[in-house]
Amino acid sequence: MQAIILLGGKGTRLQGLYPDLPKALAPIAGRPFLEWQLEWLERHGIRDAHLAAGHLARTIRDWASTAGRGNTITVSAEPAPLGTGGGLKFTEPFIRTDPFLILNGDSLLPNLDLHALADAGQTPGTLITLAITRIESAGRYGTVEFDARKRVTAFREKDAHTGGWINGGVYLARRTLLARIEPDKTASLETDVFPALCAENQLGVFLSEPPLLDMGTPDGIQAMERYLRNPATNLV
């Protein structure tokens, strides 16, 4: 199975720390974050990854040219910021498997079982299955509600004082999902595509053990480094 890693964002909140690097190549525990992500995929048997680049795409392409290690790594560069949905649509010619994985390029669910996610995604009528994880305080995340069949029923706005299930940034998708996204237009998976699929009962969830490692903020980077430097984790 192929993984599409979405790397189009600028990482505005981190530009002060690493102004010359795309967010995915920011050093985390001594290594570019993207290296951690690709190694995690490899541990699950996934050696085919496409990097959907945007901001500083040439830097990502140069890095990828020396990072193969026997894996298949391809890179595309969107011509203008297209959002997570538009950026995914732009990669359509590079997608080689059905289903395929989609990963946000700034987060990691280290305890997610990708084989179990793939099995869960076989449910008829489900175009995409979201890996979600539990968090005690949602903070800057919105929460996901779902029914007994593990179909998403609602997305709730951010509430710093409420815990719940949150989007883990890893999805199993069918190729038919791409037909739902217009080409050459800015679109968001999270705010445009997912709510529409939810309304049509075509959006599933798979429950993953925490934590969610998210490098979207300096505090998130510190938490990620503590986790990855811990010898007890399965990524060290």
What does this structure look like?
The protein has 236 residues and is α/β, with parallel strands linked by helices. The protein has a single domain (2-229), classed as Spore Coat Polysaccharide Biosynthesis Protein SpsA, Chain A, CATH 3.90.550.10. It is built from six helices and 13 strands. The strands form four sheets. A seven-stranded mixed sheet has the order 5-4-1-6-11-8-12, with helices on both faces. Strands 2-3 form a two-stranded antiparallel sheet. A two-stranded antiparallel sheet has the order 7-13. The model has no long low-confidence stretch (mean pLDDT 91).
Keywords, please?
single chain, alpha/beta, Spore Coat Polysaccharide Biosynthesis Protein SpsA, Chain A, two-stranded antiparallel ribbon
Topology:
Elements: E1 2-7, E2 27-28, E3 31-32, H1 33-43, E4 48-53, H2 57-64, E5 72-77, H3 83-90, E6 100-104, E7 107-108, H4 114-120, E8 128-135, E9 143-146, E10 152-156, E11 164-173, H5 189-199, E12 203-208, E13 213-214, H6 218-229
Helix pairs in contact: 3-5
Please tell me the overall pLDDT. Answer: 91
Structural class: alpha/beta
Tell me about the largest β-sheet.
7 strands, mixed
Helix content: 10-25%
Strand order of the largest sheet: 5-4-1-6-11-8-12
CATH domain class name = Alpha Beta
Q: Helices and strands, in N-to-C order?
A: EEEHEHEHEEHEEEEHEEH
Report the β-strand fraction as a percent range. Answer: 25-35%
Report the CATH architecture: Alpha-Beta Complex
The shape, in one word, is globular
What is the number of strand segments? 13
Alpha-carbon Rg, integer: 17 Å
